[in-house]
Amino acid sequence: DVQLVESGGGAVPPGGSLRISCAVSGDSLSSNCMAWFRQTPGKARERVAVFLTGYGFSEYADSVKGRFTISKDDMKNTLYLEMNDLKPEDTAMYFCAAASGRWLPPPLDHSLYNVWGRGTQVTVS
């Protein structure tokens, strides 16, 4: 089994930066796809960024493109999301997720991601 644990969330003023992390434990060899989602009450769950191991592929939501960067440290088995120029509308609970199998391109719908962390709150105000 794969377990995901997010950390690094907090409060930051508009224009600030924050890096959140997702520690991966267990068997991670069965999937090459990991993503960051965010969720705010009253809004649909949004895939913020996705990363495919071995392909050098990353993809971002239009709302964060140019401001956020997803990366993975294979030695530390940790997924990161670096967030720059944060805006109030970035306020959300951020979740790390993984989709089992091999994907190219990665799935967009959240239902296709079968492993989830519990989330870390990011508040921009």
Question: What's the short story on this structure?
Answer:
By secondary structure, the protein is mainly beta. It has no helices and eleven strands. Strands 2, 4, 5, 6, 9, 10 and 11 form a seven-stranded mixed β-sheet that branches. The chain has a four-stranded antiparallel β-sheet with strand order 1-3-8-7, with no helix packed on it.
Number of helices: 0
Share in β-strands = over 45%
Note poorly predicted spans: none
**C-alpha Rg (nearest Å):** 13 Å
Percent range of helical residues: under 10%
> Could you describe the largest sheet, including whether it forms a barrel?
7 strands, mixed
Q: What is the H-and-E element order?
A: EEEEEEEEEEE
- Which structural class best describes the helix and strand composition? mainly beta
Q: Kindly state the number of beta strands.
A: 11
Overall residue-averaged pLDDT value: 93
Distance between the termini: 37 Å
User: Rough shape?
Assistant: globular
Question: What's the topology here?
Answer:
Blueprint: E1 2-7, E2 10-12, E3 18-26, E4 33-39, E5 46-52, E6 57-60, E7 68-73, E8 78-83, E9 92-99, E10 115-116, E11 120-124
Parallel strand pairs: 2-11
Antiparallel strand pairs: 1-3, 3-8, 4-5, 4-9, 5-6, 7-8, 9-10, 9-11
